[in-house]
Here is the input.
Amino acid sequence: GQQVMQIPQYQHVQEGEDFTTYCNSSTTLSNIQWYKQRPGGHPVFLIQLVKSGEVKKQKRLTFQFGEAKKNSSLHITATQTTDVGTYFCAGRTGTASKLTFGTGTRLQVTL
Amino acid sequence: DTAVSQTPKYLVTQMGNDKSIKCEQNLGHDTMYWYKQDSKKFLKIMFSYNNKELIINETVPNRFSPKSPDKAHLNLHINSLELGDSAVYFCASSQDWDGTQYFGPGTRLLVL
Here is the structure.
């Protein structure tokens, strides 16, 4: 079945450093979504990417969808302690198929 | 005005017991889901309902039975609980198939 892997599993950065998580799917995706889960919380939707090569920005967050639509990345510039949490990508392979969540990347930010 | 709510928030029970988790959404969405998040934070879909009809049924033991009395509710009943069922169970909803999913706060289940 479809697998969606994320690397790294865990990253610890100092506040102000940049952070990137990479998402790789075993199959071509129709679209990809990104979610953030704070410690003890629930996943919260961040963004959806649909087009090959698409890049979207939300303040310090930059999301990219690969040309082959099999990978994606999330880059955070100048991390803050409020960025702490686990970031999940989630991909869909068809127009009406389930969303398969990636393995997640846990980000820890210290002062 | 919580969008997706779940009860209970915490559930501690003995092996072999039967328990239910309830989920309600007030967003007017057509599709609802149950996810299981294990101790390693892996998030896996279990079931999905669209307009009260089961549309996704992953490889889940038949001890787990979802029920959707109406579009706004999706409950999860678990029979003969096992230690491995300990996890956080999230309910979610979306307007349609490929829309944003809104998650509930989760139910932390611990089976002793």
Remarks:
- The mean pLDDT of chain B is 93.
- The interface with chain A takes residues 35, 41-45, 48, 56, 58, 90, 92, 97-98, 100-106 of chain B (CB under 8 Å).
- The longest strand of chain B covers residues 43-50.
